[in-house]
Write a structure and sequence with these properties.
Strand order of the largest sheet: 2-1-3-4-5-11
Distance between the termini: 73 Å
């Protein structure tokens, strides 16, 4: 009669590696306080024995599903699709499955995500909101861990991960000013309303103008209905029939900027000879446009890593420490649309 070999256990890995079962557990859970040499020995033992972590059983014993939710406004906006890829990669590395939810920027859908859809199939939520109000966060069920990305409707309401939008827009505007541009339009900007991403980036633009002694012209701040290609094209076309015309466009995402480039091309405008164009987000397409697009590049991989780490920490220890506001780095990638 044939027999099936028993699955190796943590105890077997520990004996093979010459360490304690607790050390094996620490390596599996990626705890920091393990030496590189010990980590290497344990991983060699895991590979040699063919040990596999029983994630499902471990999660069920802890009263968890092993699944987290990522809720974003629109997956056809490339930034969110690229960010989702990084979140799913990071979650998989940490032994979690991601449920992807598209809110459309609709408050009711964002509220549903914020409250875990009133179901028990997610251990926590990473949410990029557009329509939530401060009161929505103040009254949420805090038993469900939540990390916000980008927009922050209320200070100190939940853990939050974002770039420094004011600084990023200021640096992009300073780059345009250094090139001699003085009539810089903000496509997708706003000068009123709550401190959303559009307002923060407009504030950074205004700071750069003030520091350079360039008067602020509210007529150069152009709100848009959505942050899509066609909205950027329409805004750029409208701006170019004005008098005087802008000599640069600071577009608050790359979709707007790429749409603007198309509209400018159709009008016979030469970028960057006649005017400069800058975007935000550094989506993959921005490097393949003609001209290639200068853009603010947030560290999307670090946003994903920080968001997943914060969420899993809250899942493990909901009341551990104060709420965190994690600021992720960014860089201005100078390309052909500003003479790079």
């Amino acid at each position: 009669m044939s027999s099936v070999a028993a699955r190796p256990r943590i105890k077997d890995v520990a004996e093979y590696a010459g360490v304690s079962p607790k050390t094996v557990s620490n390596v599996i859970n990626d705890y920091e306080h393990v030496s590189d040499r010990t980590r290497e020995v344990v991983r060699e033992a895991i590979e040699a024995l063919g040990y596999r972590v029983n994630i499902a059983g471990r999660q069920l014993r802890q009263g968890r599903t092993g699944m987290i939710t990522l809720a974003v406004p629109e997956l056809d906006v490339a930034y969110f699709a690229e960010l989702a890829k990084h979140v799913m990669t990071e979650a998989d590395r940490r032994g979690r499955t991601v449920l992807l939810h598209q809110t459309g920027g609709v408050r009711e859908r964002e509220l549903a995500a914020l409250h875990g859809f009133d179901a028990q199939f997610t251990d926590g939520v990473i949410l990029s909101p557009l329509a939530l109000r401060p009161s929505d966060l103040a009254t949420r069920d805090r038993r469900l861990p939540v990390v916000l990305l980008g927009e922050r409707p209320a200070e100190g309401s939940t853990d939050h991960v974002a770039i420094d939008n004011v600084r990023a827009a200021r640096e992009a505007t300073e780059h345009l000013l250094a090139r001699g541009r003085r009539r810089i339009a903000v496509v997708g900007g706003t000068v009123r309303g709550r401190q959303g991403t559009d307002r923060l980036r407009t504030d950074g633009y205004r700071e750069a103008l003030e520091q350079a002694g360039v008067p602020f012209d509210s007529g150069l701040v152009v709100p848009v209905g959505a942050y899509h290609w066609k909205d950027g094209a329409r805004a750029a076309a409208a701006l170019m029939v004005g008098d005087p015309r802008p000599d640069a466009l600071l577009c608050l995402n790359d979709h707007l900027a790429l749409g603007a480039l198309r509209a400018l091309h159709e009008r016979g405008e030469r970028v960057p000879k006649d005017l400069d164009v800058v975007g935000f987000d550094d989506i993959e397409a921005s490097g393949f446009s003609v001209p290639s697009l200068t853009t603010v590049a947030p560290d999307k991989q670090e946003i994903a890593r920080a968001a997943v780490a914060l969420l899993l920490d809250r899942i493990e220890e909901p009341a551990a420490g104060p709420l965190l506001d994690h600021v992720v780095g960014h860089e201005l990638k100078v390309r052909e649309s500003t003479g790079g």
